[in-house]
Amino acid sequence: MSAPNPAAAVSAAVPAEPATMPGHRVTLGVDRPMRLDSGAELGPFEVAYQTYGALNADRSNAVLICHALTGDHYVLDQHPVTGKPGWWEMLVGPGKPVDTDRYFVICSNVIGGCMGSTGPKETDPATGKPYGLGFPVITIGDMVRAQKLLVEHLGIDQLFCVIGGSMGGMQVLQWAVAYPESVFAAVPIATAARHSAQNIAFHEVGRQAIMADPDWAGGNYLLEGTRPHRGLAVARMAAHITYLSEPALHRKFGRNLQNRQTVTYGFDADFQVESYLRHQGITFVERFDANSYLYITRAMDYFDLAADYGGGTLSNAFRKDGKGTPVRFCLASFSSDWLFPTSESRAIVHALNAVAANVSFVEIRTDKGHDSFLLDEPEFHQVVRGFLDGCAEHRGLTRPSRP
Amino acid sequence: MSPLDENQAAARAASGNGIRTDLKLIAEMVEPGSRVLDVGCGDGALLAFLSRQKGVDARGIELSMDGVHQCVAQGLSVIQGDAETDLKDYPPGAFDYVILSQTLQAMREPRTVLETMTRIGRRAIVSVPNFGYWRIRVQLLLTGRMPVTEKLGYQWWETPNIHFCTIKDFVVLAEEMGIRIERCMIVNRAGRITGHAHSGLANLLGEQGVFLLRRD
Question: Would the pTM count as exceeding 0.80?
């Protein structure tokens, strides 16, 4: 079989969204619309979320999981579109480091997303048409503001822990800075307190790929009956390279050829790595909306805790009433992550040290790159388990007796 | 395991009490419920002891990844970092005690580290191996080679220790830096306390010194 041609295969893909998606959905901002960082107002709006485990009597065991750029709230469930297992089932579940026998786990699809929360592909009640580019630009702060409304809706005053990797880690930091009294512990993984110029540059490549696709139709593709599959697939291919590391790519593919003995002197996918990336691009467009990709990458680009909360100095963002933040932190980075390198985590650690905050920090040695937080990394999992156990002890959360 | 970890593990095994002699003496100096930073906390033995036995808000900083993993995995608050670069961010008086056990001699700039410790801690506790210990003096005298002892179990070419001092040297440095020695314990081979910081006998018989320091 020759390597799939992305253009041909992709054009056949249609949004295969089941009529009823598993999980919960709530309408928020009904009485009062939510004011966004841009100054625009959003409301009422929908948030899709999933929960696992049970909330205890004093509502002190809730763990909020924040998903990454193209993630969703299906942490443990089989994905309704792709049929793949939940994206964090290695870390979360009964007896796992984030133990659903012990904690009440919540994960919501971010606003601006495309898996049930209000985003550019949803219908704008004002026009009866999809928002498209009429959707207001959102920030990480806005995503977290919506999550706060959801958590309040669930009757929870203080989360035991907020945990997430990459863009999820940005949300964790935002939670700890914007609502320190509502967060007991925070676990930002493979993340940064601001999006770097290099990362903004990569995002811009992805956005330009989408907008250069004629099927994008100025963002109106849902009305026009087209889909910018090619652009979105290219955006995903470029981004996917940044999630891996050179050693990991080399180990997996090297310069091996795809189903052939010699190169073809053409532009087919001669190399396995090309075929792999094309596959990544194709499968991505089946489950993701191009405009959502534009909005969410933009939200990451705008993220800068020091500028937004610290007057340019990150440690100021972690001050509360003249004192250091009461939130207990555990940061983890991965040695081969060049998208969110260890130095970014270390900058956060130094800022937390400057306010004498309670912080743990571990760099995990691995050659698997940024995506390591989604993979089988036993040391990382031990760190999360140990940190949460220690925090549970301090919080007075008793371990449930197992039958 | 890093050389420092091995050193600590060997010393702990030698002490036979679960926790190393100098760590036990250090723990005695710490008031219950205080805020403590253990610099070079290794596998977290002292931190665990302090937080469980004395209700201390215990934090650590450790260079070796293995040490940090072991600490965090048992619920201790520890960051991976270098004492010589990562302590400077802390505000003055951030801790009641900053502890440095058996590590000062491995620092590139012990003086700067001492300065930083006494700035960010209201008090500092430092334990140093005594290079004036009689067995070391005898070894050098008789064999003409760099001494290797149980506590300093490295050949000259493999040792992480780059700035050895005697108890007397340490006392002189502290005086020069305007650091007051509030308390001092001299520990001999049997783990007993045998005299005062300034005595020549302590400098001869002490295998290590444990000092409670405060900036004047």
Answer: yes
